[in-house]
């Protein structure tokens, strides 16, 4: 999918958050491959279309700009993947989607949202901390990296309080 050069200045009022469908996976993969050095495969995304998962997309018109994959386990939500198309970064799209994920999980009775983030992903860590997350642990060697493995910070935010 081609993203226009003028894509940068998108008003939040022009955004729509909607559930993703299997037909969205090619657009999700396009964003995933541009956003991550070790992207998820198509089969991993397709395996997430289950009752205890929530897959959300942020759209501007017909263009998918961002997505999130959340697993629900008992009363905890686990943000497994969130990514914004490079053309939409720095515009608040990720924050907009994260807030939707938080609000929906709270509305559906989840008590907290957990996530892992690369220790080197300072922009994401700053966003999560700004949105009320705090570190509850680390996972050594959690992520694949160019030169071996990279540690993850485990972050948590209580919901519905």
Layout of helices and strands:
Blueprint: E1 15-19, H1 25-35, H2 42-47, E2 53-60, E3 63-73, E4 76-84, H3 93-107, E5 112-118, H4 122-130, E6 134-145, E7 148-158
Parallel strand pairs: 4-5
Antiparallel strand pairs: 1-2, 2-3, 3-4, 5-7, 6-7
Biggest sheet, strands in spatial order? Answer: 1-2-3-4-5-7-6
Radius of gyration: 15 Å
- Please count the helical segments: 4
The fraction of residues in strands falls at: 35-45%
What is the residue-mean pLDDT, rounded to a whole number? 91
The description of the largest β-sheet is: 7 strands, mixed
Strand tally is 7
The share of residues in helices is 25-40%
Secondary-structure-based class equals alpha+beta
Walk me through the structure.
The chain has a seven-stranded mixed sheet with strand order 1-2-3-4-5-7-6. The N terminus is likely disordered. With 161 residues, the protein is of the alpha+beta class. It has a single domain, classed as Aminopeptidase (3-Layer(aba) Sandwich). The protein has four helices and seven strands, in the order E-H-H-E-E-E-H-E-H-E-E. A hairpin with a 2-residue loop joins strand 2 and strand 3.
